[in-house]
Give the backbone structure.
Amino acid sequence: MTRTTFCLAFDRDHRAGGRAHRGPGPMPGPGVGGSPPAGGSVMRHGDGTTHPLDVRAWSAPADPVELRRLDGLDGPVLDVGSGPGRLVVALAERAIPALGVDASPAAVALANERGAPTLRRSVFDPLPGTGRWRAVLLFDGNIGIGGDPAPLLRRVAQLLAPAGRAIVETGRADAGLERYPARIERGDRCTEWFPWASVGAHHLAAVASDAGLDVHEILCDHGRWFVELRRPR
């Protein structure tokens, strides 16, 4: 199951300067703010299926699989949907300059507390260094941001420097492209519905080509699939 970096306003909503949500009803969803996922949170798809969210991994340090994907990266690196800054911190520990970008004020606050430079913005907003990033990261299912990988990868291509790399975590190799409404739930509280997507590693290759990105490598590491894309020189 692909992990996400969504933030919800539950017990820690004060970290975002927001108001608490008690009882049923919409809660701030991705892109509008909130606080980190709480225990027992699930993602519900529009067809009613649910998937548990890996809350501990969301806030834990980067794991060995992720650290291996960071090997060989040159800075500066942009982490899209960076959450509380796990990967930005890991890169800083390697003396690699990195910046996170996340739409959640709580995630940004947590990241900055950890010493991970992070901007509260959408990836589609104006960002510093456009066209000069040596690497862009889309881990933890963040290829689903916006509900369509095609415009997201076109945006990534704009952000990358010539010969820059994008490391994208995907679904399993043979999975297709799925677009669907989703929301995050915990008990009787939930976000509003938002567009999301998932895509398999091989299908992503075709989407990347349309965005002007070349596939450099597809690999599986302990059950997690990654695609490395390159912007042509």
In short: Residues 13 and 19 are 6 Å apart (CA to CA).
